[in-house]
């Protein structure tokens, strides 16, 4: 049975919302998880465990290759490291993956994983296959603080930021499930990543940056920055840093063209208004006609879908001289949602006005609706089922297997 939506959090005030600082999770066995460490951190960690500088440098290079290029989950798989050293490594270090609480597959091939962290927090990742690409939608936080009224995730409370290891771990888990090791650029099913899952990536900037650098590293997962898109609801002060320090494609959750409507459906607009947001987009490093900024626009019936709204959208994009693409997203319903989706005819009329102005405005085909994996629907099953019920189901599965 679905639980009632959680109470909405207050609108962000003059100080940006941050999670309460938490001490790093310590595994009960005391081992250090190597996933999420940079090359330098990995070398230092091995040195701190007792290897001399030369050995730490060599082993770090070998382990890095096995983790991020070969997808190894056990030190015994690392054939170029002495078998006598495998127990020493296994005693001190772990190669983590998120725990999969539930895996679902939609009728359209979309896959969704409900994942659980070692400290018992749940989050979701979604893989969307297409004819010419496969896109993984990655979460950056447990819950969300932004309260966008059309978004199911926005009804959750913000629990904490995900670590760099938990973020890159979603990519590695998807590679596991798709059988895509060793890592190679040709013939991949997982070709693109979008930071559009649970949470606001720019409110977890350091971990998102560090995780994406691991994903883009040519010696490992080796995914081009041109195949990675970071989506923000408009955390203006962090946008320039994102361009300079990460350099991936930018998507902006715009969803309205007037202050009144955007204040309602994207409350962050009360803090960083449309004009301020669009100027930050104009200043975004690397934005050009070859690397257009994507503006996400959810279509809400009688709220933001009129011809006048479409014409104002065109005016704004032209005024700020933005190299832009507009993704029109039919609203994906969820229990208790306060809006309805625009009619197909209204969406078509809106798209035609934007297209006529020379701006691409395709309508996104909803994917994974039957498993609540579509845009705006992510909300961990931990809030739909009690944790006791999930644990009971897991025990029943294990008993059946036994």
CA gyration radius, whole angstroms: 22 Å
Order of helices and strands: EHHHEEEEEEEHEHEHEHHEHEHH
- Total helices: the number is 11
Instruction: Enumerate the strands of the largest sheet in spatial order, edge to edge or round the barrel.
Output: 3-4-5-6-9-10-11-12-13
> What is the strand tally?
13
Largest sheet: 9 strands, mixed
Report the portion of residues in β strands: 15-25%
Distance from first to last alpha carbon: 29 Å
Large-scale geometry: elongated
Helix content: 25-40%
Mean of residue pLDDT values: 87
Which stretches are low in confidence, meaning pLDDT under 50 for 5 or more residues running? 1-14, 373-387
Structural class: alpha/beta
Structure description:
The protein has 402 residues and is of the alpha/beta class. It has 11 helices and 13 strands. It has a 9-stranded mixed beta sheet, covered by helices on one side. It has a two-stranded parallel ribbon with strand order 1-2. Strand 10, helix 6 (236-245) and strand 11 (249-253) form a beta-alpha-beta unit. Helix 1 packs across helix 2 and helix 4 packs parallel to helix 5. The longest helix has 16 residues, at 53-68. The two termini are 29 Å apart. Residues 1-14 and 373-387 have low confidence and may be disordered.
């Amino acid at each position: 049975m679905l639980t009632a939506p959680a109470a909405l959090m207050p609108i962000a005030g003059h100080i940006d919302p941050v999670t309460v600082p938490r001490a790093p999770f310590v595994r009960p066995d005391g081992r250090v998880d190597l996933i999420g460490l940079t090359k330098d951190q990995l070398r230092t960690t091995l040195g701190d465990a007792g290897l001399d500088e030369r050995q730490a440098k060599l082993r770090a290079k070998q382990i890095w290759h096995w983790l991020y290029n070969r997808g190894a989950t056990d030190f015994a798989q690392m054939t170029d490291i002495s078998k006598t050293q495998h127990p020493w490594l296994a005693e001190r270090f772990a190669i983590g993956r998120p725990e999969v609480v539930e895996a679902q597959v939609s009728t359209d091939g979309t896959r969704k994983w409900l994942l659980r962290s070692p400290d018992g927090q749940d989050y979701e990742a979604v893989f969307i296959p297409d004819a010419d690409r496969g896109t993984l939608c990655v979460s950056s936080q447990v819950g969300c603080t932004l309260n966008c009224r059309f978004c199911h995730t926005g009804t959750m409370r913000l629990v904490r930021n995900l670590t760099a290891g938990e973020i890159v771990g979603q990519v590695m888990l998807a590679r596991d499930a798709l059988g895509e090791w060793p890592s190679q650029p040709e013939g991949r099913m997982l070709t693109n990543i979008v930071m559009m899952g649970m949470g606001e990536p720019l409110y977890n900037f350091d971990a998102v940056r560090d995780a994406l650098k691991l994903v883009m590293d040519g010696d490992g997962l080796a995914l081009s920055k041109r195949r990675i898109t970071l989506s923000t609801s408009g955390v203006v002060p962090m946008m320039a840093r994102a361009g300079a320090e990460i350099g991936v494609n930018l998507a902006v959750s715009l969803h309205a063209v007037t202050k009144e409507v955007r204040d309602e459906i994207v409350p962050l607009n009360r803090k960083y208004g449309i004009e301020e947001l669009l100027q930050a987009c104009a200043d975004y490093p690397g934005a050009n006609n070859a690397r257009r900024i994507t503006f996400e626009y959810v279509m809400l019936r009688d709220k933001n879908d009129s011809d006048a709204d479409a014409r104002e959208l065109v005016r704004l994009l032209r005024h700020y001289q933005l190299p832009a693409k507009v993704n029109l997203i039919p609203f994906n319903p969820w229990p208790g949602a306060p809006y309805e989706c625009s009619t197909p005819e209204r969406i078509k009329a809106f798209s035609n006005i934007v297209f006529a102005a020379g701006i691409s405005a395709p309508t996104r085909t909803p994917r994974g609706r039957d498993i609540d994996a579509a845009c705006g629907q992510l909300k961990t099953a931990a809030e739909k089922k009690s944790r006791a019920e999930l644990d009971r189901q897991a025990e029943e599965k294990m008993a059946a297997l036994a």
